[in-house]
Protein 1
Amino acid sequence: MNYQKHYDSLVQRASKRTLEGYVEKHHTIPKCMGGADEISNIVELTAEEHFVAHQLLVKMYPDNRKLVYALILMSGNNGKNKVSNNKAFGWIKRKMATATRERLLGVPLTKEHKQNITNGLLKSIANGTMRTGTPAQVENAKQMGKANKGRKATPEQRAATSANSKGVNNGMYSKEHTTEAKAKMSHYAKNRTSEHRNKLSVSQTGKTQSEEQKSRRSKSQKEVMANMSDEKKRLRGAKISKTLKARHKRLKQQESCMAP
């Protein structure tokens, strides 16, 4: 069988059509063989066609280990379960895409699922096994941190960052934290370690706000207060008063500890 001919026919057919629904992007010349990550080297295939394309590539280049590994991963051949044909592969991928899309579009996770995620994170943190990236990624992050240390954003960069976090671009736009989420944030804030509190204090010591920052903050607070009901204003005032009293008490304790 002329595998190259079948592969070229599949790619050419894909390049001259527009698919609807679930599609998968395929590099005509595989990246492991020097193919560029560019539009001219990418076609959209159905899940079944994608599986067949990788089968053909392995037939054409049987000595390319990376192509073989890619096909093994696509087929789910882990020694126990295995996708036997392209129809089964396509059905699995579409079901997975639908399930993922539904979850990301706001289908709420159950309390049990959320608790399992939380427990898993806490366990990995406690065991020191939480994923932080490959050694190369960690080293790259350190180098970027050193390069950016002390660097200040230009007014244009600040304006762009601000614009990208306002209105519909903000992830919390038209949303409110749930009572449960607020309770969690309050709990974590109240139970900060002394070391954490000292770091926050040191980071803010000596800092002063510019007149522009003060004006912007004042304007924002006035807008919030204008749209707030009388009951919310009362609760907000009581909360601020309680916070200030706690802060004053903490400062007094620190002063007494520092006194000779």
Protein 2
Amino acid sequence: MAPDPKLEERWILLDECWKKMMALTDGLPNEQFAWRPDEGQWSIDQVLYHLYIAERGSLEYVKKKTSGTNTIPQAGVINELKWQGLKRALVSKKKWKAPAIVANIPPVEDHEELIRDFEDTRKECREYLENLPMNRRTAEVFKHALAGRLNAYRMLDFFIHHFEHHRYQIERIMEAMKKKKDV
């Protein structure tokens, strides 16, 4: 299949998001990835796990939705308007309650395993979308808990903005860690 510039530009941005996140947390001792600022608040690893399960679950949904020969409606203006609303929420630095499907995050046992799983999922997602026919990429193959059905390009846009949104959360956790000093 011929390269898709619209996919490629999104993968470049996602790779940049990943590099920024890894640079932000580079050098942290393992115990600091598990530190939580307060009861009921997430650790850095829990934030990363939330991002991971959002992407893993999205990939699984797209695979299920695009398997077989079923007809999938093409995404249109209404889908785009819903995406724009979701994007506005994500680019704000406001704290949002995660949708229930990805909100209950257990403590992470192995940080390195989480990172490997995340990288493997990204690679698998990239390969899958690159091999997906164009009419499937532009169809309603992704379902967001709040915005509803979107196309594969908007799924990647969601990943980008979701990642950036949670980078601010990790920065807040790290700032709280510095203030605590005994971590």
Protein 3
Amino acid sequence: MARAVVHGAHEAGLARPPVVGFVKVAGRGVYGDQDGERIWIGRRGLVTEAGLTISADLEERARELESQGTTVVFTGWAGQLGGILAVAYVLKANAVGAVRELQQMGLEVVMITGDNAATAHSIARKAEIGRVLAEVLPGEKVAEVQRLQLEGRVVAMVGHGVNDAPALVQADLGIAIATGTDVAIESSDITLMSGDVNGVRLQRRHDFDRRVRPPQPGHGGSRHRSLQRQRGRQQPAPAPVHRR
């Protein structure tokens, strides 16, 4: 998302003065000083806690954009909201087909995201995903995976970011994407070598073993290993995969 915003500013020919005292607030946004003024950029909660006032007009516009499936980023300074940015997620062309195929295999597809509920549900409807866990902060993803496991589910988690790494470890099967971060790859069991969501599909007759080992509390090391070693028997993995 940050790259999209910077790219948009570059295309618009906007100046980018240097920022000092840059701070990232995990899962919420960033702030820093520019020309002696504190600038806030992030989620609604971050800017309101910083004391910035959101006008009724901007709030109405933000909620309208969120209902359309965009993520709204708020920015402001000097006690006032300066504007909002709408970042749109574009579903991959084969995303809906991949979700349908997983569902036809008898698997439940769940979306877990830090986005607000309106945006998350809008995207989920387009992808035909019935269950959504929205507004989940980075540190809460592990707890959500554990909650699913306590429901008696065997959980395969697909992730690519730094914030996904702990949840990939907690899941019964962690699947990373090669275009993601190194820490996500190291925390996973297998890595898809492309961003093609079809790589997540599991052949029904080779669904991963329901008797996989339970999650190991406190396990902080890499668990990126072959399915053969982990499951104790020969098993094909979602293709294409990279094992090491």
